Amino acid sequence: MGASALPADASVLAIDGAVKRFGSRTALAGLDLRLGDGEVFALLGPNGAGKTTTINLILGFLRAEAGTIRVCGIEAGEDPVGARRHVAYIPEQVALYPGLSGVENLRYFATLAGLDPSKDEARALLAEAGLAPEAHGRKAGAYSKGMRQKVGIAVALARRARLLLLDEPTSGLDPSAAADFSATVRAAAERGTAVLMATHDLYRVREMAGRVGVLSGGRIVEEIDPTALDHAALERLYIERLAEVAS
Amino acid sequence: MRRIGAELALCLQDARLRWVGAVLALLLAVAGLGAWRDAVRYGQDVDAVTAAERARWLGQDAKNPHSADHFGLWVFKPSAPLAVLDPGSEPYTGRMVRVEAHVFNDAVYRAVQEAGPLARAGLGSVADIVGLVVPLGAILLGFSAFAADRERGTLRLALGNGIAPGRLFAGRFAALLIALVLVVGLPLLGIGALAAMSRDAGGWQLWPRLLAWIAAQLAYAALFLLVAMLVSLRARTAGHALAAALAIWVGLCIAAPRLATTAVEAFVPAVSYREVRARLDAEMRPHRTAEANDGRTREILARYGVSEADELPVDLRGLMMVENDDHHFALYDREFGAFFEGIAARERAFAWAGLLSPRIALQALSQTLAGTDFAQHAHFVWTVEAYRRSISERMNTEIRDRPQRGGTTLVAGPELWREIPPFAHAPLPLARALADAAVPALVLALWLAGVGGLCVPLVRRLKP
C-alpha cells in the first residue's frame, strides 16, 4: 500500500482538498497529500506553484478556504499552535540573531520551544547539523547562508518532531554542505521523522526523497518514484509534466 | 522562568537597553536629586522659621489677648516627603499662612515662583519624567518585540519550530518588564529611599506609600510597553511599529490630557476663588457696621436682663468677639467648604478623565499616593484654620471670662501665650489616600486590561 493511501488518522500529515486563493489567483486548487512516519516527500514545482503556500498552510500561517490539513490528527487551521508542536521547520532563508553565537541562537530557540539543551548538547546538535566546531562560538552575524542553514537544521533536530518541513533547503548551499544536509535528512527519516520538502533541486530530490509530487496549477499532477529513474529521466519527466499542464 | 531568562539574556545583548536605561536613570537622578536638595533646604528653612515664629509668639509683650490674636504668627506647610518624586499640587499652592484674628488667610508663597527653566518646560520633576519620557523608553524597548523578528525572519523560524505565540509574548513581556523595573523602578526606589531616610516622615506611612507609588509608575510604564508590543504584533517592519507607537504616545500623553482637562473644566464647573471672596465680603460687610454692633450689644444686654455692660457676669467685648467669630466661622465653613468641594469634584472628574489618557490617571494616582494632591492641601488649610480658631477662641474666652469694669482693659502675659501649643500638622492617613486613589487606580487597571485584551487575539493569530 502506498503512503498516499494512508488513512488520515494514521498519517503524520494529511492534506485533503486544500484550496487557497490570493485574490483572483488560485495558489492551491484541491491539494491532496498523505505522509507517514519516516517518509520523505519532495514537492517539485516552478516558482508560484504553491509549494511555500502548502508549507504555510501546514504551519497554520495561512488558512485554507476549503479542505483540511491535519498534522498528527490536529487540524492546522483550527489549532495551529497544537499542530506546530509536532513540526520542525527550516525556512529557505534561516534568520538568526546576529549578536548571538550559533550555540546561543540554538539554545535560545530551543529554550523558547520548551527544551533546555546544555552547551555541550547544543554543540553536539550543531555538529550533527554539520557546522564546524570552530564556528559554534562565533557571532551569527558573521555566518554565511550555509552556516545559518545548519543552525536552522540544528534547531529543527533539537525538537525531534514527527514532521520536518523544509522550504528550498539546499538553496544557496555549496555542494559539500548540500551533501551533508541530505545525509542529515536521511538520518532523520531513518529515525521515523516524516519529511516534506519543497524544492527545485532534482539532484537532491533523487538523493533524499522516497516520493516526489509534481505540483502545478495548485495540485499534484503526478507522483513519481525517484528511485526508478535516473537524474536525466527525472528531469525530463518533470519538464514534460509542467509543459502538459501549461498547454 | 527559563524562557524569561532566555529573553532577558537576548534583551541585555541589545545596546538599546543600555542607552535607554542610562538616559532614564540620568534624567530621573538629576530631577530627583535636585528635588531632594530643595526639599532638605526647605525643611531646614521651615524648622528655623517655625522656631523663630514660636519664639516671637512667646516673647511678645504683655497685651490684651485680642491684640495678641492680631499679633498672629506664620505657620508653614510641611512638604510631603514623596514630593521629591511627585510635587503634585505643592508648587502651585501656598506654603505659608498668616494666622490672625478674624481672617481666613490664603496660603501664600508658591514654590513655582522659583521654578527653573526645566520645570517651566514641564520636565522639572521625577513624576513629569515618568509621565512623559518613561513611556518613550518603554516604546523604544518594546516596538521591535515582534516586528523586528518578523522583518529579520527569526519569527518564522521561532513559530515554525513549535514556539507557542502566547508563551513567546509572555516571556518577552516579562523580560522587557524586568528591564523596565531595572532602569525605572530602581532609580525611583533609590530616590524615594533617600527621601525617606533623610527627611522627617512622621505620620506619612512612608514605605508603604513609596512602594505603592512605585508600583503605580511601573504599571504605567508596563502599559506603554504593552502598547508598543501590541503595535509590534501587527506591524510589518520595526520602523512602522516605532512610527505607530510614537503616534499613539503623542495622542495619549500630549493631546488627550489637554482635551480631557478642557472637557473637565467645561462639564464640571467650580466656584471661582474671586466669587467666594466677593460673597464673603458681601455677607460680612453689614455685620461689621456700627449699627449692627449696637444691635448685637442691645441683644446681649437684653439676653442677660441688664442695662449696662458692667452689670454683665461676662466681659461684653469678649462675648461679642466669641459670637462674631462664631458667625464668621460658619460663613467660612460654608463658602470655603463649597469652594474646596468644587475643586475636589473636579479632581474626581479628572481621575475619571483618565479613561481618555492613562497619563491623567497616573497623575491623579501618583499625587494621591505621594501625598501631594489637592486633598492634602485642603486638609492643611483646614488644619491651619482650626489652629487659628483655637487661638481666637482661647483669647476671646480669656477676655469674656475676666470682665473688666469701668473701662479698664485686660492685659495678659507669657502664661497665656504658652497655653497656645505650637502648630502641628498630621497628613491625611494612607488609608484615606488609598480610598482616594481607587478611581485612578481602577482607570489605570482598565487601560492595562484593555490593551492587554487587545493583544490576546493578535497573539493568537501571530504570523511571521
From TrEMBL, chain A:
One of its GO terms (molecular function) is ATP binding. SUPFAM superfamilies: P-loop containing nucleoside triphosphate hydrolases. This is ABC-2 type transport system ATP-binding protein. PANTHER family: ABC TRANSPORTER ATP-BINDING PROTEIN ALBC-RELATED. Residues 13-242 form the ABC transporter domain. It comes from the Bacteria. Gene3D superfamilies: P-loop containing nucleotide triphosphate hydrolases (3.40.50.300). Pfam families: ABC_tran. The lineage of its organism: Bacteria, Pseudomonadati, Pseudomonadota, Alphaproteobacteria, Hyphomicrobiales. InterPro entries: AAA+_ATPase, ABC_transporter-like_ATP-bd, ABC_transporter-like_CS, ABC_Transporter_VariousFunc, P-loop_NTPase. Belongs to the ABC transporter superfamily. Transmembrane segments: none annotated. Keywords: ATP-binding, Nucleotide-binding, Transport.
From TrEMBL, chain B:
It comes from the Bacteria. The chain crosses the membrane at residues 20-36, 129-148, 169-198, 210-233, 240-260, 437-459. GO terms for molecular function: ABC-type transporter activity. It comes from Methylorubrum salsuginis. GO terms for cellular component: plasma membrane. Signal peptide: none annotated. Keywords: Membrane, Transmembrane, Transmembrane helix. This is ABC-2 type transport system permease protein.
